[in-house]
Amino acid sequence: MNAVDPGKSPEPALRVAVAETADEREACYRLRYRIYVDEMGKRPAAADHTRKSYSDSHDKKATLLYVSDGNEVVASVRNTWGATALPVEYVERYDLEGVLAAVPKQELMFSSYLNVAPEWRQTRAMGLALEAAYRHIRTNGAWMTFVQGNPALVPMYERMGFRRFRPNITDPDFGLRLPMALVADDVQHLSRVHSPFARFAADYTNDARHAQWFAQTFSAYAQPSIARLMGTDEFLRYVAERMYTDENLLFRGVDKDDIDKIVQSGVILRARGGEPIVRTGDPGTEMFTVLSGAAEVRKRAKSGQTVVLQTLGKGHIFGEMALLSPHRRTADVVALNDVELLMLSKDFFEKLMTTAPVAAGRMLWNLAVTLCDRLHVTTDSLVAEGPAS
After folding, report:
1. pLDDT in tens, 203-240
2. Residues 278-299: pLDDT tens digits?
3. Which residues are registered as beta bridge partners of 17?
4. CA separation for the pair 269, 145 (Å, rounded)
5. Does 6 have pLDDT greater than 50?
6. Which of 17, 19, 79, 126 could bridge 25 with an S-S bond, Cβ 3.0-4.6 Å?
């Protein structure tokens, strides 16, 4: 008999299944509502707040895979197979006309709504859901699946083997999203990034031509954005060329060795001119520092006109309120040209206060100075406008 740690309860047996009945599907919808509405503060139009359930029109033709502890659904993911349903919305969102000219629709899958209950995130539940989704893709003969990635989850998606392949998009319910694709039989790439899917791929027939086609077709976008995939030295060199100057407001007074450790936890986010990066009213827990390019901070006035509050260039930061308060975004930020950003999360800052309190304190001081400067700008703007009539 194996010994059991008396301080921990053994993890209950988990079951993976396809949601076949109305009750099973409804349980997945309730978990989805809990994550997106209750936890993340999103406000999707299709959510049913009375029943605390969230489903949309695409669920009817999709496969819902779920993980259960025997009493409730603790994780779920949705796969939509191209042979069963290929909504015009998906074709437009992912700009798939060129893809469909080269790849039969039955070889495509669309994955979405990967949800894990908070109390189950340190267990096997997510791994089981991901394995079920991957095996469902391969069993149906598909070799490429698409997601629209939350910027904060890009590191997770890239570690799974997903790569960006199109410009960023703005979802009406969820804001900035990054179209990403997984070539499910690109064993070389899956192994290189240490994807959990690499070992599952051995159970299926893999065609190296798929990886070659993807690399040739989407070379302009498939750049890694985290230190683990770029390599620590290359990542630091890349960021250093763009950031280690007196222009960077966030890192003023911070020791360079500490900066190196900090930026390794960041994500490089790229946007093209005209693309929104942050929208007024969106929830968020990330802040950004500009590595290259320029962006505008915009606010819609009561008159309906759009007012430019600030132009951001290299070294400027925005979104810092998300680290300090639970309030939603208070302005739009739009890329003026091709822009690169380093994104840091609230979770990272909370850990930093324990692991490097001196560096964290200096950075928080820099954020406070930035907020004071912005308050002065806002006050001067209000005074210039005069009293409301």
Report:
1. 999 999 999 999 999 886 656 555 566 666 676 676 76
2. 888 877 778 888 888 999 999 8
3. 66
4. 21
5. no
6. 19
- Length, in residues, of the chain: 389
- Domain extents in the chain: 15-217, 227-385
| Fold match, 15-217 / 227-385 | no
Q: Residue 99: phi, psi to the nearest 5?
A: -65, -45
pLDDT tens-place string over residues 328-373: 788 889 999 989 888 888 777 888 888 888 888 888 888 888 777 7
Structural domain 15-217, CATH architecture: 3-Layer(aba) Sandwich (3.40)
Rounded CA gap, 193 and 159, in Å? 6
The token pair at 222 is: 């498939």
From CA 146, how far away is CA 107, in angstroms rounded? 12
The count of other CB atoms within 10 Å of the CB of residue 19 is 22
pTM for this predicted structure:
0.78
C-alpha 147/C-alpha 159 separation (Å) is: 14
CA gap 359, 254 in Å, rounded: 6
| CATH entry, 227-385, from 2.60.120.10, 1.10.10.10, 3.40.50.720, 3.30.1600.10 | 2.60.120.10
Complete edge-to-edge strand list for the sheet that includes strand 306-312: 276-278, 332-335, 295-300, 306-312
Q: Distance between CA 388 and CA 379 in Å, rounded?
A: 14
Rg (CA), the chain: 22
